[in-house]
Amino acid sequence: MCNYPKQFEAMATNFQFDSDFFKNFLIPDYILRPEAEAKVESVPYVPNCPVLVFINSRSGGQLGGSLLSTYRSLLNEKQVFDLGEEAPDAVLRRFFLNLEKLKLNGDAIAVEIQKRLRLIVAGGDGTAGWLLGVVCDLKLSYSPPIATVPLGTGNNLPFAFGWGKRNPGTDLNAVISFLDQVLKAKEMKIDNWHILMRMKAPAEGSCDPIAPLELPHSLHAFHRVTEGDEHNVEGCLTFRGGFWNYFSMGMDAQVSYAFHSERKMHPEKFKNQLVNQSTYAKIGSTWFFAPLFHPSSMNISQIAKVEIMKHHGDWQTLPIPPGIRSIVCLNLPSFSGGFNPWGTPNCRRQRDRDFTPPYVDDGLLEVVGFRDAWHGLVLLAPSGHGTRLAQAHRIRFEFQKGKADHTFMRIDGEPWKQPLPANESVMVEISHLGQVNMLATHSCISRSVNDPSTPSRIDEDSEEDCEDDSTQGGEEFRKFGAAATFKIPDEVDISQLS
User: Fold this and answer.
1) Helix, strand, coil % (nearest 5) of the chain?
2) Which pLDDT belongs to residue 234?
3) Three-class secondary structure of residue 427 per DSSP
């Protein structure tokens, strides 16, 4: 068992907490050992809110390392993990295996810890998505809910669930305050989206991605599918992955790619959140001159055919307005640092276009289009939004090389440059996979279809422009599966995760 640091008495006085506050989070030593002994040990209490903390020490400049030190001074060091040293899948597999061994031996504390466990992850959206993916892949009977500490550039996941979007304080008082929020937070489910991408395989050589393709870490299945797999297509590469917040393509992904490329080449220039965000804004200003940096030949309607499935088994062709340079498939009400591209349709628009309120656990993605940054400025207005294109359970993009030989794509802040081979199509299909549990504060902006406190009424006074409608089509529904979807390779520098 860990002993309380001497500073606990002073901190308890400052925060009007008694010393029992810290017992809520501490996990006994014997449960955290690499090989837990299958015997029950006597401990004086059962933690009310046991936590495992995962910190990307390379996020947020020097803040990640400072936050790691503070958490280790407050909690049992064995329950606070540096993602630069140990991956979350190894930690969680070991931890839950220990719990199962102890439960079989009649350890009531192990039973309660499994029921009450909460996870904390500190890093950017890429780091948070990594942990969410691991939890999803473990397929636990009950997935522990997750709180996210914003240490990245966009921080859309933390912002969507009320944890803020600015780097938090890393001192003792700030961390204790955050732990208090974790203790009081409510649980909320969030949809998990599976993405499948298929393209022509090289005629010779390995089945690595076509150069210069560098996919995000969540699209890691860099091999041909096995024989008998329903997605097995002769001569093609199949990539699988997943996301929780958004998939986007076009000009916005191009800006993000330029930022990530600059950070990769000059990491010494990206040491804190303020510098990162100002650099991103500077690069993003090129979107105001979209005709120069993103010619019309790269507009979505010129390179992609889009189909959606709103109702089971019914595919529809989705017309894309000619001027749309960017499409966002959105699950959370936070994009590009906290904007909500979908907004709030009024009752008439909802009825006329068959829209439903945008919940994070309803199995629907909101599909929004943008022409350029001038169009994006409407998001600064209280009721501003992009061009609402559709809501869908499944989305399919088929890219053909036209005048452009590439496009840009992005998953939860992780961008890549996607080549479009001559005379060959690239297919991207998105489908609902499942759900994981998140922790949300009282200021959470996300809405749940299962939460009785969630407002179900749409604002009838909101005014908006309605630019596009959809048409219908059909094709039989097929399920997708994703194995080990979110594994991050050992050689990856996690400082590059947003």
Assistant:
1) 30, 25, 45
2) 66
3) strand
Using CA atoms, how far apart are residues 448 and 161, in angstroms rounded to an integer? Answer: 11
Cα torsion 133, 134, 139, 140 to 10°: value is: -120
Q: Is the dihedral of CA 262, 264, 268, 270 positive or negative?
A: positive
Structure-block tokens of residue 286: 């090129």
Domains of the chain: 19-184 (3.40.50), 192-441 (2.60.200.40)
Amino acid at 278: S
| Amino acid letter, residue 67 | L
* 240: nearest Cα among 193, 201, 202: 193
Kindly report the pTM of this predicted structure. Answer: 0.79
391 DSSP β-pair partners: 366
* 80-82 vs 414-419, strand pairing mode: unpaired
- CA-to-CA distance for 99 and 112, rounded, in angstroms? 10
The Cα 83–Cα 121 span in angstroms is 10
Q: Which residues contact 6 (CB under 8 A, 6 or more apart)?
A: none
The DSSP element (H or E) to which 81 belongs, if any, is strand 80-82
CA distance 165 to 160: 9
Grade residue 231 by pLDDT with cuts at 50, 70 and 90.
low
CA 365 from chain centre, in angstroms, equals 14
pLDDT band at 356 (very low <50, low <70, confident <90, very high): confident
Nearest-angstrom CA–CA distance, 75 and 86: 18
Q: How far is CA 465 from CA 345, 383, 384, 386, 388, in A?
A: 10, 11, 10, 9, 9
- Average pLDDT over all residues of the chain: 76
